[in-house]
Every structure is written in C-alpha cells, then in structure tokens.
Specification:
By secondary structure, the chain is an all-alpha fold. Helix content is 70%, strand content 0%.
Amino acid sequence: MEFNRAQLKREVKLSMKGSGCMMVTLLFGVVVSVGTWLLNTILGGMLTGGTGSVSETAVYYIQRGYDFEEAVNIALLELFRRGPGALVAIAVGGVVLSIIIALWQSAMDVGYEGWCLSMVRRENPPVSKIFCALPQILQVLATRFLTGLFIVLWSLLVMLAYGILLTAAIMLAALTDSAALAIPLLLAAVAALVVGIVWVSTRYLLVDYVLLDKGLFGLDAIRECKRLMSSNIGKGFVLQLSFFGWYLLMIAMFYLGAVLAVIPLVGAFAAGSSGGLIASSGFALLVVIAAAVGISILSLWLRPYVTGSIARFYDWTCASADGPQGGPVFHGGGDGWGGPANYTWTSGPASGSGAGSGPQNGGFPPPPPPKAPPKPRDDPWN
C-alpha cells in the first residue's frame, strides 16, 4: 500500500475537527502538572529527608533581613550539621522521587497517545481515555523501560562507531600531516552518527501504540514494533521531520516577543524618561502576554496533530504489513474516517481487462473516465 504523508496529515486534521482535542490537551497538561506537584509535596519531605526545610530556613533568614547569599549559607550549614548519612539519604531520596515522577508522566503520556489513537479512528473518545494506561501501568512501565534500555544500548553502539571513525580520522591526519585525507573519514563519522541516531529513535516509534492497540507488552510489543517499522523507518522519520516548521514558528514567536518587549525598555532606559519607562514596561508586558498566549494556543493544537499523525502512521503500518485486516481502512472523503473516499492509499489502473465480455454500454462508446481528484497537499511547514 502506497504511503502518502500529505493524505495522512489531512486525515488527522479532519479527525481533529469537533473532537475537542485542544481542551483535552489542556486538561492533560493540568492533570500531569497537578499530579507532579502532589508527588513533590507529599513524597518530597519523606524521600529527601526534609530538604524542603532548607529552603524554608533560607526564606526565614531572608525575611529577617539577611542577604540572599548569607541566608543560603546558613541553611546549608544547618544541612551539613546533620552528617554525611543525611546527605546520602537526601541524594538517594531525590533520585527515587525523580524516578517516581518520571514514571507518572510516562504512564500519562501513553494514555494521551491512546486518546489520540481513538481520535484519529473517529471513535469519539471520552476525556477519561487519557487515563487508559493506568490500569495496566506495570505493563506500560516495563515496556517503556525495556524500550529505553534498547535505545541506550543501540545508542552506545552508534557512539562507539562514531568514536572509532573519529579516532581514525585524527590519527590519519596526525600521521600524514594533512587534514585533507582525514576529511572523508570525519564526514563518514558524522554521517554514521546522524543515521544511527535517526535509526535508533525511529525504530521504536510505535511501541506504545502496539501496547495499547494489540495488548502486547514487553519484548512482544518491541518485536511487533520492529516488524511494523522494518521497512518504514525512513517514512516515520520524514513524517516527524515534516513538523519542524511548526516548532520553528514557536521558537520565532518566542524570540520575536522577547525582542519586541526589550527594545522599548532599552530605549526608555537610555533616554532616562520615567514616564517612557512606565509606558514601555506596560507595552512589554502586553507583548509577553500576547506571545505566551499565542505559543500556548499553537502548542495545544500542535501536540494532538503530531501525536495523531504518528497514531495514523501506526494504523497505516498495520494495514501495510497485514493487509486490510491489519488495521482500519483509510478513506479520505469529506466525512473523514469511514466516509466516502475521494482518494485512496493506492494509485494506478485497476487490474483486469474485461476481454471477451462483448460490447459495453449497449454498443455506444464508453464514457470518458472521471477526472482525478486533486492531490492532497501537505501543510506548508516542512
């Protein structure tokens, strides 16, 4: 089955309409942030040996008139008086707390991917779908741990190959006293690094979707993901790369807002006008708020767009690897998923010649073939 990135992304945009994906993404972010705050608040004091009291001590001395540096030094001295055992307990507790928070956020990320998978399938998923990974959190965490382990191991091999080629280039340059001979090896090292990173990061792109959709976990989910991605790593990488322009736009909005906010302040400060400084401060505040709101709205739209596109790519890999029974059939009509199609994943004339079937259309010439539908366009941010 032929892959069409523009069609895939158009399908995702159609499925996003009326799905409330931006509100779901906002709620998802709030839930993850509140959960992270609760874990920090409840477990922070228990696991870190009361590290919070150090900051409270520093605040106490600042309120009593001490300088910031003096207050921090006093708080640290009180911490050191607890002895090395307390310091080790604090360090270990901090690591454990970080792991717990990472596990919570990881499980919620998988749940959000499950919601997006249902969204692109036009299943009208409820908001509670973002919690779909929590009932199987052990399987989710085990699968993600194994996936991360394989990524780290493959990355080490990539770095080893890069180091060997780079060392060979340096030695060749030193022995021949000429950098020209080492340049091909240096370029080969950089190319090997880039290709290796792309291959490693994209090879396991669909593990979460296999876990959610097929009920596989652990090594079974990883093997199934590798099977689906065996000849589609390049397609998956290009699909992710096609969103680069949107991220570039967000970065440009941030820096443009910062520049527009700072320039009037610098001009008013140089002029020494208190009234101008107040007016410039108000203008800068408005610019910062406008930039923050714009970036937030764009990110709330972009996240389901990107995640939904990867979910749709998963369905395409299933249909491509296993045939129509391997996943939902893609239809790109005005009604979106499952609606009447005006283009399909495959192109080309139908098979069969109809020889020996006699005159067609009652002996009249056959009607002209219908005009081909317009080819779907990719969004401009590639």
